[in-house]
Amino acid sequence: xxxxxxxxxxxxxxxxxxxxxxxxxxxxxxxxxxxxxxxxxxxxxxxxxxxxxxxxxxxxxxxxxxxxxxxxxxxxxxxxxxxxxxxxxxxxxxxxxxxxxxxxxxxxxxxxxxxxxxxxxxxxxxxxxxxxxxxxxxxxxxxxxxxxxxxxxxxxxxxxxxxxxxxxxxxxxxxxxxxxxxxxxxxxxxxxxxxxxxxxxxxxxxxxxxxxxxxxxxxxxxxxxxxxxxxxxxxxxxxxxxxxxxxxxxxxxxxxxxxxxxxxxxxxxxxxxxxxxxxxxxxxxxxxxxxxxxxxxxxxxxxxxxxxxxxxxxxxxx
Length: 318
Known about the structure:
- This protein is α/β, with parallel strands linked by helices.
- The protein is built from ten helices and 13 strands.
- The protein has a nine-stranded mixed beta sheet with strand order 5-4-1-8-9-10-11-12-13, with helices on both faces. The protein has a four-stranded mixed beta sheet with strand order 3-2-6-7.
- It comes from Sphaerisporangium album.
């Protein structure tokens, strides 16, 4: 295991293109329906595995058929799921995503077993043995809002483990508690709305600066079609998005995290790793689901894609 993704595990049911919800008992014919492993931990794990990075995942699913499916599909993609616990009597988290023609993704969601994940469900050795631990969705895993878990993160980092963190929701009530994790994180990767809510800032550059003061070595704020903002002690850098035809934006944030982590493991610096994250997210945006477009694609190939696109768009001097 090189990477451990820890946190939220979800089954996504996606359908496209959906222009409206049928009235009564009417039926609309669609082009595509998929079921995927998703969530801020499971989605990142699958993307890393597809990029050729050895990865394990830890979290909680129910004792139901959705849990069976989620573990099966993750294992099929090459993820070690031995750290995912089953919660009898609870439902596996799931989302129904009717994807609009422009790639937008309204959702219907059941949080399920993710809410019951707690410190007792974790094998501490998984964290200390990993080169990178990715915390995926700490805003939705309330059982890990525990000082003893912070101590475990501190011990892992002291042993050389790198810790990255992304969030799941944009719910204002869940944002403040996530600040407690920032002193134990090397790289924090929120989206723009999350960064503004947590920091209390009115614009993204100030939000990134404030979040850096909480302890991370780097803050990477994803900005959708505007790319991302990379902030470190050396300053801030804008990394533009790639110009691609968007089919579905589901999982683009998870794909960015996976590419960023793969870049760090490949020896790239923070900005170059963010560019790789951008390339992975662009590939995923071109298909349906959080792992779309990554079949048979290596991180190196995607990095070359972004390098070429960056030269064409004049961003190599960033």
